[in-house]
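step 3/5: co-fold with iron/sulfur cluster
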Amino acid sequence: MARQIVGPFNRVEGDLEVQLDVGDGQVDAAWVNSPLYRGFEQILLGKIPGDALVYAPRVCGICSVSQSVAAAFALGDAYRAETPPNGILALDLIHAAENLIDHLTHFYLFFMPDFARPEYAAQPWHADIHARFRAVEGSAAPEFLQARTAFMHLMGLLAGKWPHSLAIQPGGCTRAVSARERLHLGNVVGAFRRFLEQRVFAAPLDEIVALDSRDALQHWQAAQAGQPGDLARFLALGEALGLHTLGRAADRFMSFGAYREADGAPLFARGVWRDGSLHSLDVDGIAEDVSHSWMAGDTAPPRTARTLPDPGREGAYTWCKAPRLHGKAVEVGALARQLVDGHPLICDLVAATGGNVLTRVVARLLESARILLAMQRWTDALVPGEPFHNPAAPLADAEGIGLTEAARGSLGHWLRIEGGRIRNYQIVSPTTWNFSPRDAAGQPGALEQALTGTPVDSPRHPRKIAVQHVVRSFDPCMVCTAH
Amino acid sequence: MSGGARMNLLWLQSGGCGGCTMSLLCADTPDLLTRLDTSGIDLLWHPSLSEAGMDEALRLLEDIRSGRQRLDALCVEGSLLRGPHGTGRFHMLAGTGRPMIEWVRELAAVARYCVAVGSCAAFGGVTAGGSNPTDACGLQYDGRYPGGLLGKDYRSSAGLPAINVAGCPTHPDWVLDTLHLLARGELGADDLDDLARPRMYTDLLAHHGCPRNEFYEYKASAIEPSDLGCLMEHLGCMGTQAQADCNVRTWNGEGSCTRGGYACINCTAPEFEEPGHAFLRTPTVAGIPLGLPTDMPKAWFIALSSLAKAATPQRIKENARADHVVARPGRKPDRK
Ligand code: SF4
Ligand code: SF4
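step 4/5: write tokens
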């Protein structure tokens, strides 16, 4: 059995290599390698704590705001900052805008173009998909980019620019919104709702978020025949290609919860889903294993862990550490978030077929609809004239944890300040969870598990196209992974 | 290459965050793909946009290296990682078993133009911050010093140094206008500043067009984030030194750093990542901010400032410390 090296993967954020043992027409085992290391956790040592807000977003240009939010939460936790209601709403809006646009950028630019590839030329649906989703040249890309650019005017207004804004602070947002600007925000969000309702779903958002079972989804899709939106197009080809049979990992999911509502509860709940039911999350159960990473040291919780490259480490094959929750690999992302939040459609889909390529994509689009509706609510709730920011007094010695959800899943920053300087800073990013290597017990990470059993060179999935679907279904962000 | 000729482009990413590509996707009116086309630019390969899978991409790189495929513009995003110990192992290009720095050296040697997209690729950027654990540098600069990966004598086959479209991230228009000018054969050595950045965006300062200019005139300053006043005296703004047209050519519609309520941190400059003080606090000596405008004698600045402060209208004083307009224009000044 020959080990095959697959990479570079385009249309993923950053560089990725996968090694596969291919047996009888399918993947027998996979090893995921993050081939890029930059050393942010080393760069941050000794810095003035507030400066983390400059460095952290630059971990990743695609989930820059999520990194800022996690850093601001960690600093806010350390300094016991209080954020005024407008500040919470403004940060929610900035954060939600990034997560929403990441979901759709993934769908239109990264994920769907694979189905326009010549491997599928013989399929009856190919001509339509090719015309719509072909990379660079399909009709969807420029249409989406126009809608995307107009929507990102929200970032210009609330965050100054995107990516890499300093508007997100422990005490709230540096940008107060006037009455005129609040109206403008409403229009920007409303215009993007049109794109979702006309192109993505070809249906009202209320109808999408009300879908409550696999049957309901199938009925809805059938009713779309003739004038399908892009979700229905995807569902049709997903059925034809059996995408619900590809890319199942261990069906163990985690969400840190996201967006602080006015009543203090998150919009999307925090928790763990395993063995078919929901459990509370014990954050202290998180530790990073480095047995197969080019990193020195032993398994340690992020509060005390260090990051020190060891390129010669025996048995290692990636720069990525292996975070585990109570020793178990978990999967994070929109699917995990919606499952933990108990959305009936996602719960039913997972009960039927588990986590897989299809459910991951459906969860992302469903979540997009839910986020947009929340953004309209938040925009209406802004009160011009009331404060957006409360100053937070720095402390010379403190510890803080910032937990949030990036588009791709759970993101945590662990910060320790001593003598007014950063003494330790640990970042555990969503793709660190999903694309982690094996741990000391030999347990593979979520993608490594999901790739096992993937067909190679089958009539339905020629060459390694199914491998590509599985990889991209996680919406990987490789620059975050090893950081 | 002029008139109707088209220019092909290969885009590689190394030790950065991918944010310059994300910024590029925000190109405004027309959208990015339309704009590339109307600017006469054909993508050979871009990691975020292209259909071509891994086998095709690797074949393309081989063909360019061996001269079978012409390469007009090589765009590199992200720092070049020389570590550990000069091996480049901190970034191996997936599927090739070779460090990215080797690929970049070879491809730059055959490219007609070589473009550093963003401050990482230009100078090293944030990846070179702190202890610079990966020995990161720019294509032709190591921080402010010429050299970098390609060496100070490097010239692309059109006779130009690596063109530094610096910024963190860089503005979509800075990249697209640079490429457009190259495609038209209209960017020469004289169009670059002393750090090889296109003067088309570095002949202005971030301060130009900042909505806080009236506050600046009177040194009516913001004290806390979200105050409307000028950010220079207390909150770290380097807009009077930062060479970039950010407040004229705004970001994501109406945005810019100072419009967003936070300081310009001079992200188009080499070594901006290590200012030697807290980014969002202005270092002062005896109450006088360090880092005054570069082309103004200090004594004049101090004299003008104290005069301006004494003459500050009440409206400006009040608004500088508020997060929305509390004193409207047109009101008679309050007299003591
Ligand atoms: S905030 Fe900065 S850019 Fe704006 S006026 Fe003040 S010094 Fe100039
Ligand atoms: S205002 Fe300053 S920090 Fe902001 S993008 Fe422009 S040059 Fe960079």
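step 5/5: annotate
Residues 85-111 of chain A form the longest helix (27 residues).
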